Amino acid sequence: MSRRERGGRVLVVLPDSPDESEYAALVESFRAALGAQIIVRQGRTATEYVYELGPTIDCAVSLCDDDDLVESLVNAANGVPVVVYGETRVPGADEVVCSTNGIESFTRRVAAVVEEDRRESELVDANQKLTALSVHASAITGCESVSEVCEETLAAAIEALAFTFCTVALVEGDRIVPRASTLPPEDQNSCHVSEGIAGRTYRTRETQIVGDIAADADALFSASRRSTVSVPLGSYGIIQVVSDSHRAFDEHDAEFLEILAGYTTEALARLDRETALRAERDRLHAFFDNLPVPAVYVEEETPDGRVRCEVNRAYEETFQRRPNPSNPSVEAAFANETERRLFADHLWSGDSVAAEVDRETVAGDRETLELTIVPVPSSGPAGSAYGVYNHDSPRLPAGYELS
Questions:
Q1: Is 31 contained in some domain?
Q2: In sequence order, what E strands does 294-392 have?
Q3: 165 and 86 in a common domain
Q4: pTM more than 0.70
Q5: Which residue, of 81, 230, 310, 315, is most buried by count of CB atoms within 10 Å of its CB?
Q6: Is 399 a member of any domain?
């Protein structure tokens, strides 16, 4: 919703002691032409109304040319357009239409001023929402759990988009289950993916704007909720906002909710990818620990370059010296120049490489081994790779020398 209710209000200002029959036709012409709620106030009462409730008014229309009254309206307006029918010497009125031009001309000018102000109001409102959403977007993309994503999405819907009743629901099995909501506990009900407006949103992957929930064939009826916007979160679930009023939402509300849903969907997808990568790393580590040949796992984090090294049992049983994980760089972790350069060059490259290295064994002998570097894909700020040593020695790549 914009800072002024769409459909709007126009304040008509009359003199302190008006001749009602003189102004009745003018007021009715505004009501018919503008399609807005017309509020009539007299004299200083109008000034007080503008001062207190200005953000809810599209325009203040003065049907009298009392300069003192017009000046007080302009001073109290605080962004509300003031249009005067008649003549005035007061600077600051947005429009002054001479009464000799007729009421139809005046009504057209008021309609134009109201429309321009609404467009400006919606633009300001949109910019404010986008700015607020950008702050929440950063928080959403940085969440480390599904629960955090849902809670941060709910906060964005409430704080940035100003929705009062909102639910973030995810699919669990064949049900859509609320994970974060501002609705009362008794209204936080799950539903089957084939049921309700929520289910339709999820199945079609399309936004649903419902102005009258009770009239919707798929609605799971709730007497206290009369309209809704429901937006899909890809294959993960939905975001749904509801109102106690009919037709409370429009395309603008849906667009902002879709922007928010995009951030949320990407955050959930990232967590899925990280979960899959962790599972793959766990499988690799189990394989790594049981390899019958020496192996080392090396991980370097940015931007500080801290290094973590792990070795398997075969490595400890074979070699006299372990990598030093307390050193500040990959190069410093290995005593062997070839190993230092191989890990430093290929930890982040994504490409496997093999080369000869010369290592001293526990028995005090020196052996020439094949070292194969296998980088591990990562979605975070870390490069990692496994190094596997065996006795099949290939030709050393150009630029590498035995130490």
A1: yes
A2: 295-301, 307-311, 353-360, 366-376, 382-390
A3: no
A4: no
A5: 230
A6: no
Residue 190 three-state SS: coil
* DSSP structural state of residue 235: T
Residue 125, domain member (yes or no): no
The residue behind tokens 């709007």 is 8
Rounded to 5°, angle at Cα 122 from 232 and 258: 10
Find the radius of gyration of the CA atoms of the chain: 35
Q: Cis bond leading into 375, ω under 30°? A: no
Q: How far apart are CA 58 and CA 37, in angstroms?
A: 10
Q: Mean pLDDT score of the chain, rounded to an integer?
A: 81
Whether the CB-CB separation of 220 and 228 falls below 8 Å is answered with no
Number of domains making up the chain = 3
Query: For residue 92, what are the domain limits?
Result: 9-119
Contacts of 200 (CB under 8 A, 6+ apart): 208, 218, 230
Q: Are residues 315 and 268 in the same domain?
A: no
User: Do both 164 and 105 map to the same domain?
Assistant: no
Q: Cα–Cα distance between 391 and 367 in angstroms, integer?
A: 9
Residue 185 has which token pair?
């506990």
Closest by Cα among 107, 109, 14, 118 to 58? 118
Residues 6 or more apart whose CB falls under 8 angstroms from that of 235 comprise: 171
CA–CA dist 253, 400 (Å, integer):
61
Separation CA 21–CA 104 (nearest Å): 18
Kindly state whether residue 347 falls inside one of the protein's structural domains. yes
